[in-house]
Prior knowledge:
Elements: H1 2-10, E1 19-20, E2 23-26, E3 37-38, E4 50-54, E5 57-62, E6 67-68, E7 72-76, E8 83-86, E9 105-114, E10 117-125, E11 135-142, E12 153-156, E13 163-166, E14 172-179, E15 188-197, E16 202-211, E17 220-227, E18 230-237, E19 245-251, E20 260-261, E21 268-269, E22 279-288, E23 294-301, E24 323-331, E25 337-339, E26 348-349, E27 366-368, E28 381-382, E29 391-392, E30 400-403, E31 415-420, E32 425-434, E33 441-450, E34 453-462, E35 466-475, E36 478-481, E37 488-489, E38 496-504, E39 507-513, E40 520-527, H2 533-536, E41 548-555, E42 562-572, E43 577-578
Parallel strand pairs: 2-43
Antiparallel strand pairs: 1-2, 3-26, 4-5, 5-7, 6-28, 7-8, 9-10, 10-11, 11-12, 13-14, 14-15, 15-16, 17-18, 18-19, 19-20, 19-21, 22-23, 23-24, 24-25, 27-42, 29-30, 30-42, 31-41, 32-38, 32-42, 33-34, 33-41, 34-35, 35-36, 35-37, 38-39, 39-40
Amino acid sequence: MEWYLVLLKVKGYDLAEKRIGNIRFGFKKRGIHRMKIKNPILKGFNPDPSIIRVEDTYYIATSTFEWWPGVQIHKSNNLIQWELITHPLNEKRLLDMTGNPDSGGIWAPDLSWNNGKFYLVYTDVKVTDGSFKDCTNYLITAEDIMGPWSDPIVLNTAGFDASLFHDTDGKKYLVNQYWDPRSFHHPFYGIMCTEYSEEKQALVGKPWVIYRGTVEKFTEGPHLYKINGFYYLFVAQGGTVYAHQERVARAVSLKGEEFETQPGEAFLTTVNAPLHPIQKAGHGSLVCTPEGEWYFAHLMGRPIHHSYESLVDPRGWCPLGRETAIQKVIWDDGGWPHIVGGQNGLVEVDPPKNVVEPEELQNVQQKDNFDDPVLNINFQNLRIPLQEDVVSLKDRPGHLRLYGHQSLASAFKQAHIARRWQDFYFDAEVKMAYEPCSIQQFAGLTCYYNTQNWSCIQMTWNEQYGRVIDVVCTDLGKTISVFQEHPIPVKDDIEYVYFKVEVREISYQYFYSFDGNNWNAVPYQFDSTKLSDEYIKAVYDAAFTGAFVGMMSVDGLGTKLPADFDYFSYTALDFSTDKI
């Protein structure tokens, strides 16, 4: 084992992130400290990164799928530390996902900047499974990354993963995955290109296919760049699974001939490296620093395994979802790009020149006492903006009040506020006041993937005890209760209950308390892998998000009974073990 770990270190792997079975290994660094970019740079569900630089600031936009508000945008001045600053699709005029299916909604947004203006292209996918992809591509603009953003312009409905290219002659072009609904064809037809008129605020002319991809198929996620006289097209292929990859093609003109694929192996992939800490590498975008250095931001996954499973087959399970990493890029004499360190990428990457070393970030408890007039930016809800009849920070000062609405199985109106799992080991805790009087009323702490895959510890009511605590789980659409006819009674004089979940990589467990100090474990451990893309994909085509932890309130009577949350805390834990 020691020889195997040292070998990985020689190859440049970051062993602090390597897990063998249920064991996580950490290492003390020796010698001179050198500043590095540490992957993933955006932890937890943050896929399909679109990266740009405006003067000395970098921005990354990532997919949010059915989570509202739409699109996450992070910023950085050094490519090392990233701060979540905004969700631009924060009004219903910009995005309405009412009834969108699980893993529908915002796919692969594209952020660009040209002549003092930000451009954001995004796809709202309404149909995910089957032969059809009903989706619409939109464009909005703003002079400031924080908005306000213009009314959306409908571009086309031909496919997803659309992005806008600003050519050096002033013309603009939209490229997108071109969907083929014919049952006897592969659905990924190629990459479509259409000219965009800023004056007409519409696509103009007839679209054409510029690239059909390679034998790996599933050609998507296109981004165009013009560099040294060539048009370079970066595309994802192989599907956003363990066979994922990024390919590069180029042409001297956008019209007249299809793009030529870069000779040799894929630009980026880990399909051939099952033990690499980075998996699913692909689907990304390119950025140049002020000093002329190149970097490629891409999605990745960090799989975990049960102790009885091979590390090779299956590749593993990613409850944290698809995350964002970044790699350094160099160009060869023939004008083709390559990942520094090889096509698998590195966990630790050299930062740009002249970067000032940032202060070290500490793993500190993140606790929200709900004293601010707006929700913490890390929280999101599902599909639609929540009005004051659903959520309020004013109706009971110092509390987040959730008025009960539809169940966690609903694709329409849930009273459910959550944040991403961003760590393999963490504790999340809430303090809640609630007075249910019906079997159709319940509120509590959730671990959630989608409407068909979630669990929660909740307070509800039953005929024998009145207020009770139960733990409920929905697994691929089948719902079970842990306590069934023997829930935990809550005494009449108890105003607040405390709920906690302890996530320990491959499993997680709920706890409850009546005083916040003495905790009682629920005698059931849940499998974290059941909140992963890989588990859901066994039944459903579309599974592209990741695990969330949050607060919910359900009222099947329609009386909108409120649940009041005094605080929510998320505490990341370090369970690594020093070996050298």
